[in-house]
Design a protein that fits this description.
By secondary structure, the chain is an alpha+beta fold. 26% of the residues lie in helices and 34% in strands. The structure holds zinc ion (ZN).
């Protein structure tokens, strides 16, 4: 579904990729008509594909498009937003269900018992609180019970290192 909108300021940037750090291919002046696609969420951010009058196309950051065009708050089939700040991240935490700043993680716990092993995993978008909670818990359990068994002996250090990595990345998260 395409939406024809008109820019209401000189500030709308069109990016080459769905990434605020990517090259801006155009800065659209006020009063220009552009076409926007339905919103999609990419790495926790809302983006829309923008096609300019000259046929060039790129991506606009959702909150910018809403703030700098006649689109306003029209829902484009996107999930609800928690705030309109440029860093608004609108995914839902897989374990607690809150809309929050989330990261895609895979947190694992290994319990080794010589001939058997038991693995617990959480994969998906998690909020800061939940990543911290589960990476700590799963790391502690793996450190204590993880080593007993041949496969366990090799798998456990990998789990511990990735869990610690996910924990450390939460320092840069909001919430
Ligand atoms: Zn959570």
């Amino acid at each position: 579904m395409l939406h024809k909108v008109t820019t209401t300021s000189d500030a709308l940037q069109v990016y080459r990729e769905r990434d605020l750090g990517s090259t801006a291919i155009a800065q659209v002046r006020k009063g220009i008509e552009i076409q926007l696609s339905a919103a999609t969420v990419h790495q926790g951010r809302e983006w829309m594909e923008a096609t300019l009058a000259d046929g060039s196309a790129g991506y606009v950051f959702g909150p910018n498009a809403r703030g700098h065009t006649t689109l306003g708050g029209t829902p484009l089939g996107s999930p609800p937003q928690t705030s309109a700040s440029p860093d608004a991240v609108i995914l839902r935490c897989r374990t607690c269900g809150q809309y929050a700043d989330t990261r895609l993680v895979s947190i694992n716990q290994n319990i080794g018992a010589i001939t058997m092993r038991s693995v617990k995993s959480i994969d998906g978008e998690l909020c800061k609180k939940c990543i911290r909670k589960y990476s700590l818990k799963y790391t502690m359990v793996s450190v204590v019970f993880g080593w007993w068994g041949l496969i366990s002996f090799f798998v456990t250090p990998v789990y511990i290192v990735t869990n610690i990595y996910h924990y450390c990345r939460t320092f840069r998260m909001k919430g």
